[in-house]
Amino acid sequence: MKNKIENSTPIRIAYIIGKMWAGGVEAVVFNYYRAIDHNKFQFDFYYDADSTVEPPQELIDMGARFIKLPPYQQLNEYIKQLRVFLRTEKYTIVHSHLNTLSVFPLYAAWREHVPIRIAHNHSVPGGNEFKRNAAKQLLRCFAKLFSTHYFACSEKAGRWMFGDKDFDAGRVYVLKNAVEFEKFRVSDAEVGQLRKDLKVDGKFVVGHIGRFTYAKNHQFLLDVFREVLNRRNDAVLLLVGDGELHEEIEEGIIRRGLEKHVVMVGKVTNPEKYYRVNDVLIIPSVFEGLSMTTIESQVSGVPVVISKAIPREAVISNGCRYMDMDTSPDKWAEVAIAVADMDVQLTKSADNYNIKTQVPKLETWYLNAIRMQYQSNI
Fold this sequence. Notes:
InterPro entries: Glyco_trans_4-like_N, Glycosyltransferase_grp1. By secondary structure, the chain is an alpha/beta fold.
């Protein structure tokens, strides 16, 4: 078996990450790669050819490899090419981060006799996306078919994907979406300069960082911000991100007469620099597997108002307030203004999201899984 535990060379693990678009799941797996011991492990990232961003040179310089596959919509060709790579590389572990879509790469891994096949779920179904939810529900039935191990980013995501029985039996490993805390400790000088660059210096800044998708609920966010503006005429809304609903969100801004009060930054590769520019973040998501923005906002010391769709595990400070989506936008605005001056203090549970404490746990899990597999083959 290639990559035996006794080998002095690093163990190469195939990471299936799908489409790269500078998003949350992608950020999580890259965080773990940066922090993992590269003398023990190296990752080969398999990504879709229609990704909107290029592989980070920083990770390539660390030893990561990026392998391009056809988009998974071209399913036959996707599986065919992936099988060729898996057959050539003879991985011990394939770790798929495609949520319910993991069934497809893990089928390829099963066909190529990869012994450790991890299905990792980062999501839950949401709201009114009937077609997408129906597809998720259907694929969820096959979530365990070709996987040998189950991972999730939260209890909520784990129970939805793999079921209460397996979760309660301890067969689902919850790997926290950990971040590098030091990256979010941006200096006052940097914050001040960025505020000037964005022309929000001296303003009351309400922020949102995330993709422009249905799940993030930007239209409700705009309603909340309009109420904030009614109370604070110095308010400005800072939107960091982009996505398929860009035009719809722009239209919503114009329809509400907010053009002079909204700054659209677009997609960035360094979101950690933008958190402290805000006085408060508002995250009214209709569904989330966890919500990295909620975690990162608190790590940055910025208060955040979130919807009840976000799991309780994401609350790691005194600076987080839950709101019901049935609550009126004016009440959301009232709470956002009230918490903006809070001195955010992290709780002990924040350690669960510190990459320095979490990456050794992942290393141990991989080594134990490989050891057990190796022993079973003796």
